[in-house]
Amino acid sequence: IFYFPHPVVGNLPKETTQKEFDILIWGSLSPYKGIDQFLEFLYKNELQCKYRIKIVGKCFDHRYLNKLNSYTNQCISLEDKFINDEDLRQLMSHARIVLFIYNNDSVLSSGAMVESISYGALVVGPYKAAFKDLADLQYIFSFENFDLLIDLINNILSGEKVIPKERFDDFLKEFHWSEFSKKLNQELYPAM
Asked: What does the alpha-carbon distance between residue 24 and residue 96 come to, in Å, rounded to a whole number?
């Protein structure tokens, strides 16, 4: 069995200095992603206005959408819509952190995570599955519980924790589709 992180296409956007929000949560809005649990944690700990949070994605579960909407306020916004590539590029360039929650252990991989990194986003995700693998390789940051996540967010926003731009360049080189085929050939035909 060979393991390869999902290959990417180079998408690094031009640098944007103006960050409009601290945290972007994007992709399909489904209960298994645990977005509601994170928002509930923020409210229970009186942190619901500490960060500027933008949530964008399509939600097909009306009850879940209503639940997410109940957490919106002047600092937490929600848009129930599909995102095209250009809008996604813009969202990423205006976010300080792209956050993935995933509250269950069934997530093995995340195309949204890989796409976010390929856009040069600073990704934070749970310390499990593909997120764990890329955190161990120091391409993203990870967390094990919401208390540690808040500490991590604060350290990122204060500038204490950073991922140098060179790591994004390394990621795009190492996991580009052209490298994937080379690595696969090396694994399949090591003596050639």
From this structure: 8
Rounded CA-CA distance 10/113 in Å is: 14
What is the spatial distance between Cα 114 and Cα 189, in angstroms, rounded to a whole number?
A: 27
Between helices 129-136 and 111-118, what is the axis angle to 10°? 30
Q: How far apart are CA 25 and CA 126, in angstroms?
A: 13
Select from 142, 101, 97, 90 the least CA-distant residue to 122.
97
pLDDT at 116: 86
Task: Give the separation between CA 124 and CA 172, rounded to whole angstroms.
Answer: 18
Q: Where are the beta strands (DSSP E) in the chain?
A: 21-26, 53-57, 76-80, 95-99, 123-126, 141-143
Q: How far is CA 104 from CA 5, 62, 127, 150, 165, in A?
A: 20, 21, 11, 19, 31
60-84 pLDDT, tens digit each: 999 999 999 999 999 999 999 999 9
Tell me the C-alpha distance between 86 and 83, whole Å: 8
Residue pLDDT, tens place only, 112-126: 887 888 888 899 999
